[in-house]
Specification:
40% of the residues lie in helices and 13% in strands. The chain is an alpha/beta fold. Strands 3-4-5-6-7 form a five-stranded parallel beta sheet, with helices on both faces. A three-stranded antiparallel beta sheet has the order 8-9-10.
């Protein structure tokens, strides 16, 4: 699991507790707090951004996260918040520290500059033009569209205390997100599955695979986005994402044929092994 925004390095602590065996949980790849600014905030130099990236790296994060635009929760705006030059400074600092960087952008302008700046992964981006999509193909940038989380927000707007009028905006964004994913997949962009799960959405993460199929993937291709591609995105393709000698014995067993119906993976997980140890058993 990749966690891309946590206060006070709580994600670093949780990752290390799990790795030491002090608590049970997934293999975690974490970023600490994301680099963030609001429209209208005081300007920040590339040097200042690089210093912040250095601080994150020294604290032990695996990834750097940058919020390249507005957009979160019921807010589906995509106003770019970091310039191309600022994004490039963050990317260069991350790579100098041996870290990969994920850049969040709801809108097409921030997405374009994130790809041009060399982001390793682009999160959420919607309404991307053909030139940006082709740039992603050329650079082999991973696209993590997180289509399903706006479905979750719309269905749970009362629980989340969102304004009733937000539902229309959330559903509209999700539809455009799906169409952008369809165009990107057709063009040959590399996809990885991410859910942007928040609050009580945990456990619904794999619903994203259903949207991948709607975007034109076969069930096998959708599964590949969550396994092989996910491992490659993390830089762990030599140990995760496949059933192969020398890899971690991380195995999920489902009831049914997921190559025939992707819902089997979403609804019918019956057994989970992590590193050779059974951690979930619903077979009885």
């Amino acid at each position: 699991m990749r966690d891309l925004n946590a206060s006070n390095y709580a994600d670093v602590a949780m990752r290390d507790l799990i790795a030491s065996g002090a608590m049970q949980g997934p293999r975690m790849f974490v970023s600490g707090g994301g680099l963030f600014r609001r429209p209208g905030d005081a300007a920040v130099s590339g040097e200042e951004l690089a210093k912040t990236v250095d601080e994150r790296a020294n604290a032990g994060v695996d990834w750097i996260k940058m919020f390249g635009s507005t957009g979160s929760g019921q807010d589906v705006t995509g106003v770019q918040t970091f310039s191309f030059e600022q994004m490039k400074a963050a990317v260069e600092a991350a790579h100098r520290n041996g870290k990969r960087i994920a850049i969040h952008s709801y809108g097409p302008e921030g997405a374009r500059d994130a790809v041009r700046a060399g982001a390793d992964t682009l999160e959420h981006a919607t309404d991307m033009d053909a030139a940006t999509i082709q740039e992603m193909v050329a650079r082999k940038t991973f696209y993590v569209p997180t289509i399903d989380h706006n479905r979750f927000y719309a269905e749970n707007f009362k629980v989340l205390n969102f304004a009733p009028e937000s539902v229309k905006n959330l559903n509209g964004f999700r539809e455009r997100n799906l169409e952008t994913a369809r165009l990107a997949f057709k063009a040959g962009v590399r996809f990885a599955m991410g859910s942007d799960a928040v609050r009580s959405m945990f456990g619904e993460n794999t619903r994203e695979l259903g949207w991948f199929v709607k975007a034109g993937m076969t069930p096998e291709q959708a599964l590949g986005a969550a396994t092989r591609n996910g491992a490659e995105l993390l830089g762990q393709e030599g140990s995760l994402g496949a059933l192969r000698a020398g890899y971690f014995a991380d195995i999920v067993a489902v009831e049914g044929d997921p190559l025939a119906d992707i819902r089997v993976v979403i609804e019918k997980v019956r057994w989970v092994m992590k590193g050779g140890e059974v951690v979930v058993d619903k077979t009885q």
